[in-house]
Amino acid sequence: MDEAEAKRRLVDDKVDRISNLPESSLCKILLNLPTKVVVKTSLLSSSWRNLWKCVPRLDLASSHHFKENHSIFVTFVDRFLGFNSDFCLESFKLRYGDEKRERDFHLLIRWFNTVFKLNVKHVDFTDCSSRRGAFLIPQTIYTCEKLVSLKLCMVTMPCLKFVSLPLLRSIILALVKFVDNSDLETLISGCVSLELQVSY
């Protein structure tokens, strides 16, 4: 190998091939990372600075986000949902609250209503506060027509009047209360795409 060829290969090795990918491909890659990591990619270069805003996935599964800088965290979530207001939200994952802080039900209701309006596909929510089951999920959950999977833990479901969840294939409900005992049966019968999974 001559010197010119060696220099060319050295330059090729230093090329940032990932940053040269189309924005849509980069967003698909970032979809597989937690939101905290995705936001950190904005420090990589100027071309990555605003890319995290286009990733349609909000993964805030660790409740420690709420223990410090609560107002900053709330502002971040509001801004993120605002950035994605023109898109279909792929996933919303949240562990909310702790035993020391009172929950802001109005805040949660606002976030859920926004997420459902964004035609979210996957929802995973756990109420981590001491008063388990006190949070009543908004009624709009029953008409989220793009929803594919739903995982809820330690919440109360609203009174069921109408169900339109044509794409919902997976439901996981842990320590979930229903206002009316017949609502669970009505919910399941209204999910025409539901897939039965049996685990041993």
UniProtKB/TrEMBL annotation:
Ranges where the F-box domain occurs: 18-56
One Pfam family cited in the UniProt record for this chain: F-box
Annotated InterPro entries: F-box_AtFBL13-like (IPR053781), F-box_dom (IPR001810), FBL60-like (IPR055294)
Name of this protein: F-box domain
Origin species: Arabidopsis thaliana x Arabidopsis arenosa
